[in-house]
Design a protein that fits this description.
4-stranded antiparallel sheet, mainly beta
Length: 123
């Protein structure tokens, strides 16, 4: 089982950028597809992006396309989410997780959730 720790969140102005990191410990990190999700107060946790074990395939929520980039380093056991052109509606707690089930977009098919990192986009 993986243990995941997110970092890199913070307060940023609209139009700004942040790079989130997810550090993984445990066995076989490089065999897992990894995902980023986010959750705002009063809302369900939603898919943001995923990256396959090799890094060859990625996919994004429509809200993230063109602004967010997911990447990974299987030597360092890290997953990253580079975010640009941030908007107030991007404000949320961001989580990384390991894909365990069938659906690539359903948070219920992911596990080993980290504690999350808060991203606040505000002037």
């Amino acid at each position: 089982q993986l243990q995941l720790v997110e970092s890199g969140g913070g307060l940023v102005q609209p139009g700004g950028s942040l790079r989130l990191s997810c550090a993984a410990s445990g066995r076989a990190f490089s065999t897992y597809t990894m995902g980023w999700f986010r959750q705002s107060p009063g809302k369900e946790r939603e898919f943001v992006a995923y990256i396959t074990w090799s890094g060859e395939s990625t996919d994004y929520a429509d809200s993230a396309k063109g602004r967010f980039t997911i990447s990974r380093d299987n030597v360092k056991n890290m997953v990253y989410l580079q975010m640009i052109s941030l908007r107030p509606e991007d404000t949320a707690v961001y989580y990384c997780a390991a894909h365990l089930g069938l659906s690539m977009l359903d948070p219920g098919d992911y596990g080993s959730w980290g504690q999350g990192t808060q991203v606040t986009v505000s002037a």
